[in-house]
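Exercise 7.
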Amino acid sequence: MPEFLAGLVFHVYMAVWYAVNIQAVWYAVNIQAVWYAVNIQAVWYAVNIQAVWYAVNIQAVWYAVNIQAVWYAVNIQSVWYAVNIQAVLKSKRRLNSMRISDLNEAFL
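Solution. The predicted structure, written as C-alpha cells, is:
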C-alpha cells in the first residue's frame, strides 16, 4: 500500500508539474503573440506616419511650385506691361517729333 500511495503521489505531482509547464508555455506563447502584435502595430503606425510625412512634403513642394509659377507669371506680366509702356512712350515721342505734313502722309 505505501508503494501504491507513493506512486499515486508521484503521478499526481508529475501531472501537476506538466500542467504548470504547459500553462507556462501557453502564457509564453500568448505573451509572444501580443509582443508581435504590438510590434506589427508599431510598424503600421510608423509606416502611416511616414506616408503622412511624404504627403505633407509633396504638398509643400506642390505649393512651392505653384507659388513659383505665380511669381514667374507676375514677373512676365510686369515685363509685358513694361514693354507695352515703352512702346507707347516711343510712339508718343515719334508722334511728338513729327510735323503735320508727316502725319498727313502717314494717315492718308
